[in-house]
Amino acid sequence: MTNVLELRGITKRFPGVLANDKVDISLREGKILALLGENGAGKSTLMNILYGLYKPDEGQIFVREKEVNIEGPNDAIAQGIGMVHQHFMLVPVMTVTENVMLGIEPVKNGFFLDRETVSKRIKEISDQYGLEVDPHAYIKDLPVGIQQRVEIIKVLYRAADILILDEPTAVLTPQEVEGLFKIIKTLIAAGKSIIFITHKLKEVLAIADDITVLRLGTVVGSIKPEDATSEALASMMVGRDVNLTVEKTPAKPAETVLEVEDLYVRNERQHLTVQGVSFNVRKGEVLGVAGVQGNGQTELVYALTGLLPFESGAIRLLDESIHRAAPRDILERGVAHIPEDRQRHGLILSFPIHDNLMLCTYYKRPFAKGISLQPQPIFNNAEELVKEFDVRTPSVYVNAGTLSGGNQQKVIVAREFSRPIELLIASQPTRGLDVGSIEYIHQQIVKKRDAGTGVLLVSSELDEILALSDRIAVMYKGKIMDILDADKTSKEQLGLLMAGVHPAEASKN
Amino acid sequence: MTNSTLEIGSTAEKRRRISFGVALVVTGLAIYLLFAVNTQPGALTTFGLNLLGSRAVEVSDLVVPALPAIYLLAAVAVFSGAYQMARGVRSTGWLVGILAFTFVTAFLLWGARDKSFNLTGMLSSSLVRATPIALAALCGVISERAAVINIGVEGIMLIAAQVAVVTATVSGSLYVGLLCAILIGGLIAAFHAFIVIRFRVDQVVSGVAINIFGTGVTSYISSRFMQAAGDKLNNSGTFPIIAIPGLSKIPVLGPVLFENNLIVYLTILLVIVMHILLYYTPWGLRTRAVGEHPKAADTLGVNVYLMRYVNVIIGGMIAGIGGAYFTIGSVGRFDEIMTAGKGFIGLAAMIFGNWNPIGAYTSSLIFGFADSLQVKLQILRVPIPSEFLLMAPYIVTMIILTGVVGRAVPPAADGQHYEK
Amino acid sequence: MSNTTALETKEKKRSALRSELLVPALAVLSGLILGAIVILVSGENPLLAYGALFKGSFGNPLDLIGGLQTYFSTGETRALLRAIYPFTESLVTATPYIFAGLSVALGFRCGLFNIGAEGQFFIGALCSAFVGYSIQGLPMIVHLPLAILAGALGGALWGMVPGYLKARFGAHEVVNTIMMNWIAFRLSDWLLNGPMKSSGFRPVTPNVLATAELPRIFPDPLRFNLGFFIALLAAYAVYWFLFKTTLGFEIRSVGANPDAARYAGMSVIRNFVLVMALAGGLAGMAGTAQVLGVDHWVGQGFSAGYGFDAIALALLGKSHPFGVVLSALLFGFLRSGATNMQSMARIPIDIISIIQGMVIIFIAAPDIIRWLYRMREVKKEETVLTRGWGS
User: Fold this and answer.
1) Which of A17, A18, A441, B15 is the least crowded, having the fewest Cβ atoms under 10 Å away?
2) CA A31 to CA A4: how far, in whole Å?
């Protein structure tokens, strides 16, 4: 069997980072190669090189055993290489047809866009691979799972036979993942070869023909799925034995700290994205909110923290209503918030660490007397927190933007945990972090819970929800499908709820 | 959007509905208090429909009994306000239209009572005055659709105005002047694109620098060379009016639309061409993709930087035509700072027109109307100081920018640098 | 932290400061070179022109020596005063620049682009002039502060309108401040031809009363006055406010990352309005300083170009109050000297605007300067000045 694609000795340096160091990988024709590695292991860099978005400093690329020079996406496309990006490369305000034809637009009358021909072709591809995509729909109206299929159509429309799927399951429900796997198998049956990039071990074992593991920019090994176990892959990926579970004792829930009743929230575009949500969080427990991203979790958290006003319903914090309360009001009542987007909300990247560590309390003693800021207490506070939370930084004077993602998140956690809090709202607290940081943050959250803080954990990673939660609420299309006890719940059950199906109904059918 | 979004009206929407209703009722009352009360029962307002010296077939003027007409308009405003509060109309365009129409018409009926007011003349001058605004707006549309803000239109127009008149005077050909204006416009825009794309300069800062530079360099040349040289450098004449055979004979429409100079026609042509280009050609699709999601375009092999360069430069050329209008298109000579903020008003027209060519042209017409209204009112001796009437276009711009009249959505990547 | 790292940080800070100063210096130099090219193209000798510029801004060193000699030998001050006249005139010119530059710099720190300093300047001047000439019989100690306050409030009001529109509706302040400029010009046309017109033919206000004038330091014709020191005081106040107070911290946070500021419980809206009001107030004070300290009356075209100059100043001073003072002094010398250059070398004063435009571009694009002078690249966070149309 021939190698349809081979990368040899690829090296890529960014200022201060060696992103890929002499990486060799090969893809067999008609097979699925899984590229496994942690966030920051250099998978995406490697694929961007293959797709011509980056230029490698060293190394060669062979397509069908012929060396090729890929200068840009056009070259990659010409070699039959197509890429489905992790963050979809779709223009939301345009139709499926327009997105697919972009870059290689056929024209009629020598001048005008020929939308009809493209629509017809999309319909054909869609039927051939069972993709079910309407060519005339606008991207912004399509659910995430369908958008991903549009991405696949874009690649197929360009007649690619080598497909790169970059973290394709990150935004899907377990059921949608099943659907994707089915599509992948149809593609393989049609003779395509696929590189499947992921950091999820179980998926790799389920679908790959070959596995190559990357760590810190180098290949640590290649292995067949039948010879591998989750544990073995995990330690290859991380470089040491990893504890895949979080140690915690049963929760000792006390009185209610947060009560949400029939809450409706509109997002910034005036869409009603939270529709009648009710739940409560008690002191000393973790309530996990599971769900595929974009089902109203973000807006729910924004409403709870005062960043978005809510339409109707009630939020009570320690028995006091917070209707129309400003963010500061809510902060002062003891709510800590680890925001979903840490660079947008959590930090001011151009400010030094010491300022970021007092971002929510700068107006209080000891940081300020009257309106005058007090540099010494600000510095001391920063020094203490950096030590306590193990933030790796040359000094507290450097800008937050210079830190790695894990250390940035530690700065946020340090700041939020350093003031007296009753309720912790943690939204996607470990997204994009390395395993070490994930372990650390999980431990901190459990520690806070054990100290009697109520925790609301919002995450689209089911494993994280299952590892940390005492109770689990599942959100789907702005509603809570069900709230379950964590120890009586299976992943499959949650998966169905995340797709909007009650398990009871599912078994009936 | 799901059904439930429609079922539960948001509080913001409710507030908006009520406030629009109130605004209309208040307009009705204002029409009554300001205009009806001051108008004698028998007063007649004459709207002139013929333009002196035009080729159009003559028609009789429109004579309206002022008071009953004002009452009617007030009633229309109040009634639609009441209807709006009770039922709610979704289209804000209609509401704003009714509001503006009733108020402005009542104002004219009152202002021109017992006098004659040349309606055709005002419409014609609206179109002419809208021209530089529209060209600035089109420059904005084409650049910003590719996500490059060009706030330097004002400076580009100023320089192009000067270049046009000097080259036209020296060469003796207005066409040479126009061509040079287009070239210099493209050149400055290319510079803007270069430092913005290559050196990642903040787009607004670069635009401001171009404006300052434009003011400086034109004033410098004007006082160093042009004043001394007099007519030798600064007297070009203007493009002649071209009456389109046949069409210009239509009453009212003829003189307004079909008796204009080259630049006015060119502007209308550009609007149509640009609309077709943007929405029906590969170039337009790529431009819009680059403005909305440059990375997506890049991954499909579209050259983001090239698209941006080309669009910004074409935009600059259009602004160059806009500059030429000020001199060889209207007065035939250059004065310092003669653009008087028209470039910025053009940008407001672009925003109000929702970043599309036809919308931008329509809103430019509104500005042109406000501008020419102000001139006509001075002639009518309406007892309002002319300085306040001159403020009107600026105030209208500010109101439009509040988005109360309907919020526009800029291209998603507008104003952002793109890095691979 | 150990001592060595503390030292390293200090060393780094010092080298950072050096590169902070180097780029503006080279930008100004490049602007002047380009100006020289323009002069050359105009058919004049740039060396002569810049020589006239220097004499116009600093005075002739020989005159100064002569003046000092006369003073020490005879006690006669006239020659000395004549010798320092150009220098003091430069400081007089720099005074409104300091205020206006601070105005724009303060806006930048909050992520707002105040192009309206021009209109705010005009309104401030008109308000101060009005209080200055219309209220009679007050002692100076009351009248002068009152006239200054009027200017600051007038400017603040003019700045607050776009600030409020931005905060409430997200309307872009760049366009709105420019519209406010034009409204200010039209309003002043009306005021100067009507309600505020003096008895003469020309459309100017009456002279302010002596009790509202900023006291002059030297005898006539030297116009150097107290305004300069008030400007320096204002610069220090802005520095203290921005970097040493909680309010300043909020403003800088909103400017650097409005989303994070909101998350941290700061009111973005309130800060936008506050900053635009303060910025307007400072620009208004610029007008005040000019009318109460120098001209004593306001006429049409009074504000010519201060608003745009202020942008260049703020950029050149890296939006830092002390940087603004330095660049204001530089521009003061340039402008003041350019007047001399205009009469001596027949180079229109507008050359300064050309140089300014170039300086702004160079400052906004330090990469151009680094590229021109082959400097090493310094990687650092870039400050975002503006954010699209803000909708």
Assistant:
1) B15
2) 10
Same domain, A378 and A426: no
B128/B136 Cα distance (integer angstroms): 14
Residue C197 lies in a domain: yes
Nearest to A392 by CA among A381, A402, A407, A380: A407
Domain boundary residue, one of A216, A238, A260? A238
Which chain B residues in 399-418 lie under 8 Å from chain C, judged by CB atoms?
401-404, 407-410, 414-416
pLDDT in tens, C238-247: 999 999 999 9
Q: What is the pLDDT of residues A86-145, one digit of tens each?
A: 888 999 999 999 999 999 999 998 889 999 999 999 999 999 988 889 999 999 888 888
What DSSP state is assigned to residue A487?
G
> Do A129 and A250 share a structural domain?
no
Cβ-defined contact of B401 to C384 (cutoff 8 Å)? no
Look at residues A419, A434, A463 and tell me which one is the last residue of a structural domain: A419
Question: CB within 8 A of C161, min separation 6: which ones?
Answer: C176, C180
* Pairwise CB contact (< 8 Å): A399 & C265: no
- Residue A368 near chain C (CB below 8 Å): yes
Residue A302 and residue A443 in one domain: yes
Contact, B300 vs A73, CB < 8 A? yes
Binned at pLDDT 50, 70 and 90, residue C1 comes out as: very low
A174 and A106 in a common domain: yes
The pTM is what?
Answer: 0.85
Q: Which residue has the tokens 């109360």?
A: B404
Q: What is the ipTM of this complex?
A: 0.85
Verify whether the Cβ–Cβ distance C347 to B224 is below 8 Å.
yes
- Structural domain contains residue C124: yes
Q: Which domain holds residue C309?
A: 90-333
Q: Nearest chain B residue to A266 by CA: give it.
A: B10
Per-residue H/E/C for chain B: CCHHHHHCCCHHHHHHHHHHHHHHHHHHHHHHHHHHCCCCCCCEEEEECCCCCCCCCCCCCEEEEHHHHHHHHHHHHHHHHHHHHHCCCCCHHHHHHHHHHHHHHHHHHHHCECCEEEHHHHHHHHHHHHHHHHHHHHHHHHHHCCCCCCCCHHHHHHHHHHHHHHHHHHHCCHHHHHHHHHHHHHHHHHHHHHHHHCCCCCHHHHHHHHHHHHHHHHHHHHHHHHHHHHHHCCCCCCCCEEECCCHHHCCCHHHHHCEEEHHHHHHHHHHHHHHHHHHHCHHHHHHHHHHHCHHHHHHCCCCHHHHHHHHHHHHHHHHHHHHHHHHHHHHCCCCCCCCCCHHHHHHHHHHHCCCCHHHHHHHHHHHHHHHHHHHHHHHHCCCCCHHHHHHHHHHHHHHHHCCCCCCCCCCCCCCCCCCC
User: Are residues B299 and A113, on separate chains, in Cβ contact within 8 Å?
Assistant: no
d(CA C339, CA C352): 10
B201 shares contact with chain C (CB less than 8 Å) = yes
Count of structural domains, chain C: 1
For residues A289 and A415, state if they share a domain: no
Contact A400, A356 (CB under 8 A): yes
Percent of residues in chain A assigned helix, strand, coil, to nearest 5: 35, 30, 35
Give the residue-averaged pLDDT of A179-185.
92
For CA atoms B143, B144, B146, B148, the dihedral sign is positive
Residues A502 and A368 occupy one common structural domain: no
Q: Which two tokens stand for residue B361?
A: 């042209």
C61 within domain boundaries = no
Same domain (yes/no): A172, A134: yes
Q: Is C376 a member of any domain?
A: no
Domain range for residue A91? 3-238
Domains annotated for chain B, with CATH where assigned, are 3-114 (no CATH), 128-401 (1.10.3470)
Are A247 and A383 members of one domain?
no
